[in-house]
Design brief:
Helix content is about 50%, strand content about 15%. The chain has helices at about 10-25, 35-45, 60-70, 85-95, 105-135, 145-155, 175-185, 200-210, 225-230, 245-260, 285-290, 295-300, 320-335, 340-350, 355-370, 385, 390-400, 405-425, 430-435, 440-450, and strands at about 5, 25-30, 50, 75-80, 100, 165, 190-195, 210, 225, 235-240, 260, 270, 275-280, 305, 340, 375. Helix 19 crosses helix 20 (about 440-450). It is globular and about 85 Å long.
């Protein structure tokens, strides 16, 4: 049960607010002065404080200052009379979550308190991730079922020499996963070396990985160690390994099998003890079938696979990620933006996030730069996030309010089946595979919609 502390020197307000918030399911504590409230906060877990501004001795703004010193994450909502608006503005600048004018509307109070409690619980989750999970996995944020599956595999494989293949779309945080595995292994004090195979020209990638001897080619004026040598006793992270040429794949396979290699222009075998973690946004099995990736190397890399879910499959993590990045951006930009308002958060949930976590961080940085206050609004978001997506508009076009839900769903299903058949050149077995159903099920549906005689 969440706890709300109500502070007011007028007993009638304490009674009314106690009754109102207790009916909402909160545990309500009351205090008639600022010092009494501070004692409660020091000794009792509190999720939100609801305080009057005008009180004898320590007023609400002064109480806010003291609370910020004790617990900067604790949401404080201030109640003001009309004459105290200037103080309320000052309090908002100092970090108050909201201010409500007396005489107050019950629904407004309930809405503000609910927002405060939700924010407190969210920040507590962030602290948990930064301490408990952060101690293991660094900056990886997530409590969704999809991320729990990732953490489960990471925990099992982290402190082993096993090669790991991380699969995920661009921007999902594959390198963070690799760093988390390294940090939680017995190799944590040895180097973590990363190379993006897609970012290095093919002609240079071999010398980057294996190094070269002096005089190996024009411009090789001195011996250079490659990534494998630098990563000795540690971890080498090969990002976008699917971009590697077939010729270089043979040499990588030898290192994985023998733990030895030769520098470019050299003849001496160099022994290393390196754990390899690879990542790709491609389906390497399909690349093998297409002849673009060696099957033997694929099996060497794919001992344990970790699939990192795209953001659209873990949208319940969005509030945690938003809070994490806002804290990070506060240090980077020197601007304190504490939250995203509900309308803007709806845009975050609705957005498809093709760029995943990286796109989310960029959107938030833009919003923090443009934000006029301490709360991100819809106006601070890119135009493509404010407007319904083509998918949303397409769904609206399909809805027939006159027919009702069942008939509308049938209409959508029929259209999808026709599209699948068209894509499969009317080959039913192929269309069934595209749709993820059996051929007999597809034929039943086709008869249902008059597509078979």
């Amino acid at each position: 049960m969440s706890t709300v502390l109500v502070v007011d020197d007028e007993r009638n307000y304490l009674i009314v607010l106690d009754d109102l918030l207790s009916e909402e399911g909160y545990e309500v504590l009351t205090a008639s002065s600022g010092p009494e409230a501070l004692e409660i906060i020091k000794n009792t877990p509190v999720h939100t404080v609801l305080s009057d501004i005008k009180m004898p001795g320590m007023n609400g703004v002064e109480l806010l200052d003291e609370i910020r010193n004790l617990d900067s994450d604790l949401p404080v909502i201030l109640m003001t009379a009309f004459a105290e608006v200037d103080q309320a503005v000052e309090a908002m600048k100092k970090g108050a979550l909201d201010h409500i004018q007396k005489p107050f509307d019950n629904e407004e109070i309930k809405k503000a308190v609910r927002r405060g409690v939700e924010k407190r619980l969210l920040l507590q989750n962030i602290r948990y991730l930064q301490t408990e999970l952060g101690a293991l996995w660094g900056n990886i944020v997530g409590k969704s079922k999809a991320m729990e599956r990732v953490f489960t595999i990471m925990k099992k494989v982290a402190d082993t020499p096993t090669t790991v293949l991380i699969h995920g779309e661009s921007g999902t945080g594959k390198e963070l996963i690799a760093r988390g595995l390294h940090k939680s292994s017995s190799r944590a004090n040895a180097p973590f070396v990363s190379i993006n195979c897609a970012a290095v020209p093919e002609t240079l990638l071999e010398s980057e990985l294996f190094g070269y001897e002096k005089g190996a080619f024009t411009g090789a004026y001195s011996l250079k160690q490659g990534k494998f040598e630098v990563a000795d006793k540690g971890t080498l992270f090969l990002d976008e390994v699917g971009e590697m040429s077939l010729g270089l794949q043979v040499k990588l396979l030898r290192v994985l099998q023998e733990q030895e290699f030769q520098r470019v222009g050299g003849s001496k075998d160099i022994k290393v003890d390196v754990r390899v973690i690879a990542a790709t946004n491609k389906d390497l099995k399909e690349e093998v079938d297409a002849g673009r990736f060696r099957a033997d190397l694929y099996f060497r890399l794919n001992v344990v696979q970790i699939r990192v879910p795209p953001l659209r499959e873990r949208k319940e993590d969005i509030p945690l990620l938003v809070a994490h990045f806002l804290k990070k951006l506060e240090g980077k930009l020197g601007r304190t933006v504490r939250e995203v308002d509900p309308a803007a958060m709806s845009c975050f949930y609705r957005h498809v996030w093709p760029g995943n976590i990286r796109e989310l961080e960029n959107v938030l940085e833009r919003a923090v730069v443009l934000c006029k206050g301490s709360t991100i609004t819809v106006d601070d978001l890119p135009i493509e996030m404010r407007e319904p997506s083509e998918i949303d508009r397409g769904v609206e076009d399909l809805i027939s309010w006159e027919k009702g839900l069942a008939a509308t769903l049938d209409s959508i299903e029929e259209r999808i089946i026709r599209l699948a058949l068209k894509k499969a050149d009317n080959v039913q077995a192929q269309a069934a595979k595209l749709l993820g159903v059996s051929r007999s099920n597809l034929q039943y549906k086709m008869k249902k919609y008059g597509m078979l005689s």
